[in-house]
Design goal:
about 575 residues; mainly alpha; three-stranded mixed sheet; 6 strands; about 65% helix
């Protein structure tokens, strides 16, 4: 008797619906948890700034004498620098700070995040650094905290394809949304800087996470936006040329900012100073700089707000604070403090925009639009290339100001800044830091993953490998059984690769060993050869397989066929296409 199954529910449709609901719940949970922790992080930093007399307001209200304030100003960051150095060097398993570059690497290479303990220790070190007044950013640590929270979802063993990327994208989107009161920018940042594609599989839950972060920040805590600015209208269309010129100036400052950070870190490493003394040096140097120019220390929130007010700083002060902020941020990061580069870049950019307007308005009074427009354009034009997210910066402007004209003005400045910076530096500071670790994302994530895949993982299991003392009859029999046309010989005592031979080279009637008939291999790989490197070397190769040897003693690890290398690339390409076009 036949059974009518038309009225039964479609199992695949039910599974897809269940998966979609699960993915949305993942975004909601990660977004909400991330927002609460990110806000707690920010509030703790502000509390520490007041409790440790780091903020200017707390110093004024303390009632202490000047010498007491000076002593506290130097001792607090010195102790903070020492604690941070000890945390990173002795407690963190990675023995280095983790941050956004690690998140990008984990997502792009599917290599997994660093261990959770290192992430927690780094976040604590960033909290102490910011609390002690270091000139570092808070948004980088917040992004990493979001990624760290998202990464914990994997422990639930949910049946969601590409769960690591989806969960990390949710955490990053929620962190930026909560930090800037900008859910659209948070969503785009997660995909522009971290995921680097826009599949519905990650886009939908990240949207939920970003909105959740925004709701927690605005409804639950009623947090004020980063900046409260009412920009005026742009006076004339020709002024857009000035925004382009501001973008070019921002590119130069952005490159200076990033290169100063990298070179200072290199200089600090070359000094070969132990972590603890280096942390003390960082703290004392920070304290002295704070006594001299308090405007360049700490998060720079007050400097950023004053930079948006016309006439608050002279042109000399704007330029001096800008260069001082770059130098102090590079010094703090290079000598041991932990934090981000986002917040200082915002301050540097705002000061550049103010300086640009101040200089031009002195040459042509009454011609330019409002001062704040140039400040905002400079701020995003410097920051966009640093984090590699120009579209995110444009959306932050639009969400914070609700000004369409200002969004267009900032778009011009950001585009010109990113074009020049990409040409002379690269996509972002994060990508450059990854390149220094050997991870090159400039050619696309498919090439990066190929560079991360080793040919030694694709060795042929049935490869005909013999000691050079083997008889020709043994080798011929094995080749006939397996279908191979080549055999590979090793030294029986050391395992060292000594050559290969072809089936046509063998004479079964001779009865001798294969040693006298070996050829030197024109192409060999080693244990560090990547699939990408192998593909570049295979263009002129003819043969069954390529030997893989250890660089230390030339011992044979195995052999890899040309077909296996090509198949690994095809499998990777298929995986990437499925990921980029995946639905819920």
């Amino acid at each position: 008797m036949s059974v009518d199954t038309s009225a039964l529910p479609d199992r695949s449709a039910m599974e897809m619906t269940k998966r979609a609901i699960t993915v949305i719940l993942v975004g909601l949970i990660i977004g909400t948890v991330t927002a609460f922790i990110a806000i707690a992080f920010v509030e703790t930093v502000l509390w520490l700034n007041n409790a440790l007399l780091v903020s200017t307001y707390s110093k004024v209200q303390s009632g202490f004498e000047y010498w007491q304030i000076a002593l506290i100003t130097i001792s607090v960051p010195a102790i903070g620098g020492l604690i941070v150095a000890l945390l990173i060097s002795r407690v963190a398993p990675t023995k280095r700070p983790t941050g956004p570059p690690d998140v990008i690497q984990a997502v792009q290479l599917q290599s997994g995040m660093p261990d959770s303990k290192s992430g927690v220790i780094t976040s604590l070190a960033a909290l102490i650094s910011l609390g002690a007044g270091a000139s570092v950013g808070q948004y980088g640590p917040m992004v990493y905290i979001g990624a760290l929270i998202g990464n914990q979802i994997q422990r639930l063993k949910l049946s969601i394809p590409n769960l690591p990327t989806v969960s990390i994208a949710c955490g990053v989107a929620a962190a930026i949304a909560a930090a800037f009161n900008a859910p659209i920018a948070g969503l785009i940042f997660a995909h522009e800087a971290i995921v680097r594609h826009y599949s519905m599989q990650s886009f939908a839950p990240a949207t939920v996470a970003a909105v959740s972060g925004y709701v927690v920040a605005n409804v639950v805590f009623d947090r004020a936006p980063l900046l409260l600015i009412q920009p005026g209208e742009i006076l004339q269309g020709g002024e857009f040329l000035l925004f382009a010129l501001l973008g070019l100036a921002a590119a130069a400052v952005s490159i200076l900012y990033m290169r100063t950070i990298l070179r200072t870190a290199k200089f600090a490493r070359e000094l070969n100073i132990a972590p603890a003394p280096r942390g003390l040096i960082a703290g004392v140097g920070l304290g002295l700089a704070t006594l001299w120019l308090p405007e360049i220390a700490g998060l720079g929130q007050f400097t950023l707000r004053f930079a948006t007010i016309e006439g608050a700083f002279s042109a000399f002060e704007l330029g001096g604070f800008m260069l001082g902020k770059i130098a102090l941020t590079a010094f703090c990061l290079g000598f041991g403090f932990v934090g981000g580069v986002f917040s200082p870049a915002l301050v540097v950019g705002a000061l550049l925009g103010g300086l640009f307007w101040t200089v031009l308005s002195s040459l042509a009074p009454g011609v330019l639009s409002s001062y704040s427009i140039y400040v905002i354009c400079g701020m995003v034009a410097v920051t966009g290339p640093v984090i590699g997210a120009p579209l995110t910066m444009i959306l932050i402007v639009f969400e914070l100001t609700r000004s369409y004209d200002l969004a267009i003005a900032s778009m011009i400045a950001v585009v010109f800044s990113n074009l020049v910076t990409y040409r002379f530096f690269g996509r972002s500071l994060f990508d450059h830091q990854l390149l220094m670790k050997g991870v090159d994302l400039s050619q696309g994530r498919d090439q990066a993953r190929l560079s991360d895949m080793l040919v030694s993982d694709f060795t042929a299991e049935t490869a005909p490998i013999f000691p050079q003392t083997a008889t020709q009859e043994e080798v011929i029999a094995h080749l006939r059984e397996t279908g191979w046309n080549e055999a590979y010989a090793t030294d029986p005592g050391t395992g060292r690769f000594v050559g290969f031979l072809r089936a046509v080279d063998l004479d079964p009637a001779s009865g001798s060993t294969i040693a006298e008939r070996l050829h030197d291999s024109e192409l060999t790989f080693n244990e560090t050869t990547s699939v990408r490197q192998a593909m570049e070397k295979l263009s002129s190769f003819v043969g069954d397989a390529i030997p893989i040897v250890k660089t230390s003693d030339n011992s044979l690890i195995g052999v890899v066929t040309e077909g296996a290398i090509i198949q690994s690339y095809l499998n990777l390409a298929a995986d990437l296409r499925r990921e980029e076009n995946a639905g819920l």
